[in-house]
Amino acid sequence: MRMGVHREVRETAEAIDTMEIRGAAAIADAAARALRAQARASDADSPEAFRGELRAAARTLFETRPTAVSLPNALRYVLHGIEGATVAALRESVEATVAEFCVRLDHAQADLGEVGANRLRDGDVVMTHCHSTDALACIEVAVDQGKELAAIVKETRPRNQGHITAEELSELGVPVTLIVDSAARHYLNDVDHVLVGADSIAADGSVINKIGTSGLAVNARDRGTPVMVAAQTLKLHPATLTGHTVDIETRDVSEVVDRETRTAIGDPDVANPAFDVTPPRYVDAIVTERGQYPPESVVTLMRELFGEGTTRPWEGA
Ligand code: RUB
After folding, report:
1. Is 76 flagged in the annotation as binding?
2. Of residues 29, 124, 134, 199, which has the active-site annotation?
3. Catalytic pick from 130, 138, 276, 284?
């Protein structure tokens, strides 16, 4: 354990690691708030020591889930956004920067929802995968506009995040049909849009999202069903501008099969990749708070936002 890392930071890191806090936007929000907790609790006696504590806290948070770039983007926003010549001034700056970050996050999702809702028409049927607050924001705005939608919701093995989507869509008054993942192709002819979120978007327009997204997108292309990805600019992965690839998280195999069943079926090897990469040619639109983009042109937005690439969040902070 890193010295000087506050309990709340360790608890947040643990909650992200165990997926009590999950989904790229929620992870970013929690990470920024954890840095604020570190700043509030700090008894550092110099600005250098204070910044050092924040960097250590950022590293602890960063190591939890490798695929969602919203996490390092949030840490970078706070670490590089703060200024002050004294500990008190820096602490105040953390308060202001985190508050600003959380407001921007909320606004981005609401603005993105408006853009995405414009793609949805009255009477449309939407197929979802996993649970994405960015994707749900599009449906929520469309419903608020008076459009009647229906949803076919993939359960999204192994952790069944589709159940959360089903519950939240029901609360919005959207009729839901829950299906097993392998039934998706069977229903694609009845669907007007596939709508998913993203954990990261690479500079070439590839979409990194919950495992199963790429197969769904390929099937949707085969059926002629448009695929829409709802992703705030916080999901754009700056390191991919300079040729880095996105790490794909693998999770514990017990999420796939319990020990007893595994033994009973001959103890096979089990693998549990959490995310996959959907090439840009299978995606029709990436919907952000800055408007919608064909995936191939998302790189122009990335250059505008990040320049030519960035360091890891704590470097230079
Ligand atoms: C969640 C997932 C979501 C993205 C986007 O995976 O793949 O589609 O994180 O979510 P996990 P949001 O359950 O493994 O975190 O739009 O809420 O940021």
Report:
1. no
2. 199
3. 130
The CATH homologous superfamily of the domain defined by 112-306: Translation initiation factor eif-2b; domain 2 (3.40.50.10470)
Instruction: Give the separation between CA 251 and CA 241, rounded to whole angstroms.
Output: 27
Is 22 annotated as a binding-site member? yes
Residue 257 is classified by DSSP as S
Q: What is each CA distance from 190 to 159, 166, 173, 193, in whole angstroms?
A: 26, 18, 20, 10
Cα 267 to ligand 1 centroid, rounded to whole Å:
31
Q: Mean pLDDT score of the chain, rounded to an integer?
A: 96
Task: Determine if residue 210 is labeled as part of a ligand binding site.
Answer: yes
CA 270 – ligand 1 centroid, Å: 23
CA of residue 128 to ligand 1 center, whole Å: 12
299 lines ligand 1 (CB under 6 A): no
Structure confidence by residue, pLDDT tens digits, 136-182: 999 999 999 999 999 999 999 999 999 999 999 999 999 999 999 99
Residue 199 appears among annotated catalytic residues: yes
Q: How confident is the model at residue 4 (pLDDT cuts 50, 70, 90)?
A: confident
> Which of 266, 248, 270, 247 lies closest to 257, judged by CA?
270
CA distances to 27, 28, 130, 171, 189 from 13, in Å: 9, 11, 22, 30, 42
> Which has more confidence, 313 or 102?
102
Portions of the chain given CATH number 1.20.120.420: 7-111
Judge whether 13 is annotated as a binding position: no
Ligand 1 atom closest to Cα of residue 159: 13
In which residue ranges of the chain is CATH 3.40.50.10470 found?
112-306
Q: Which tens digits make up the pLDDT trace of 185-202?
A: 999 999 999 999 999 999
Question: What's residue 1's pLDDT?
Answer: 46
Top-tier CATH class for 7-111: mainly alpha
- The pLDDT of residue 241 is 93
Residue 43 C-alpha to ligand 1 middle, in angstroms? Answer: 35
